[in-house]
Amino acid sequence: MKFLSMIRINENSGLVPSEKLMADMGKLMEEMTREGTLVDTAGLRPTAEGKRVRNAHGKLSLTDGPFTESKEVIGGFAVLEATSLDHAIELTERFLKVHGDEWNIECEVRQMECGGPDSAT
């Protein structure tokens, strides 16, 4: 089963990943890729560089970032291959533990509904 782990951050915290954190994250990603539990991952650019497209009852609108009404934003994601929601949570906890006590982040974990003729799940 595939799960999406969305990393929620306060992008205005001013925290920048240290070289040690980046190295530790690299090791963890290599390990999880070898295990077959990490399918894909990426960080996202700041909301100041993004746009929101909205459909409000058939009327499309476009809003430029940054999105000041958002206290937390999705700062990145990981697509996980896990046997259950509990397994996906264990994998996400490994990711969070790498950050130590300096960071204040959380992840939302949800199972993906994969469809289409080539989908196995």
Automatic annotation (TrEMBL):
<comment type="similarity">
    <text>Belongs to the YciI family.</text>
</comment>
<feature type="domain" description="YCII-related">
    <location>
        <begin position="1"/>
        <end position="94"/>
    </location>
</feature>
<protein>
    <recommendedName>
        <fullName>YCII-related domain-containing protein</fullName>
    </recommendedName>
</protein>
<dbReference type="InterPro" id="IPR011008">
    <property type="entry name" value="Dimeric_a/b-barrel"/>
</dbReference>
<dbReference type="Pfam" id="PF03795">
    <property type="entry name" value="YCII"/>
</dbReference>
<dbReference type="InterPro" id="IPR005545">
    <property type="entry name" value="YCII"/>
</dbReference>
